[in-house]
Amino acid sequence: MLGHHYTHTFLETAVASMNAGCNLELAYGLRNNVFMHIPQALAMGNITLQVSWGTRLRPLFYTRMRLGEFDPPAMNPYSALDLSAVQSPEHRNLSLEAAIKSFVLLKNVQGTLPLRAQDLPGGRLAVVGPFADNPRVLFGDYAPVPEPRFIYTPRRGLETLSVNVSFAAGCPDPHCQQYTPAEVVGVAGAADVVVVCLGTGTAVENEAKDRRDLSLPGHQLELLQDAVR
């Protein structure tokens, strides 16, 4: 809140946060963090003991107890997990199901989706854009780093269809300052269906790196226009 000039000191921030309902701080290794000033706020009467303990602190410990943090390890089912559970087929299938169900379809003209190989008369599909086949740009801020063999880019996923898939990035990265329109136009013009993969990614925006507008970076809009002509 200091960065947004809502408060001027950590003490003011602690008082405002606690009284507003916040009971957890992401201090990120700061020894002199905001909530270290709670005792001073209590002593000054800016925060009451009822608020600090009864309303803010108690739910935290109640949640930790429900999660089993204070139970003997033998009582905690998570203690029995080992590395065999990481990227297990069951977990990968569940992740795939979650990803499929999280898609938002804004418009489905003439039932374009779901896309089937038999719906492509010439069996030709093009996937273009800086996000089409670049695993490094597919994950957002605070995302885990999976093993490369488990990452399916749009190109890799679409190549599982029984069709001829052609590819053109057009731009080397999401900033799209260097754009090669000829390869996008050539690939898109020879396809029955074109899948355009655009966006921002953490290279363009993430925490503490905001943008002033929602426009596509660099030449990405031009790439989109070239692909749909």
From TrEMBL:
Superkingdom, taxonomy of origin: Eukaryota
Matches recorded under Gene3D superfamilies: Glycoside hydrolase family 3 C-terminal domain
Presence of the UniProt keyword Phosphoprotein in the record: no
Alphabetically ordered keywords of this record: Glycosidase, Hydrolase
GO biological process: arabinan catabolic process; xylan catabolic process
Keyword Hydrolase: yes
Listed GO MF terms: alpha-L-arabinofuranosidase activity; xylan 1,4-beta-xylosidase activity
SUPFAM superfamilies associated with the record: (Trans)glycosidases (SSF51445), Beta-D-glucan exohydrolase, C-terminal domain (SSF52279)
Pfam families attached to this UniProt entry: Glyco_hydro_3_C (PF01915)
Domain Glycoside hydrolase family 3 C-terminal per the UniProt entry, residue ranges: 104-227
Protein name: Beta-xylosidase/alpha-L-arabinofuranosidase 2
Originating organism: Chaetura pelagica (Chimney swift)
Source taxonomy: Eukaryota, Metazoa, Chordata, Craniata, Vertebrata
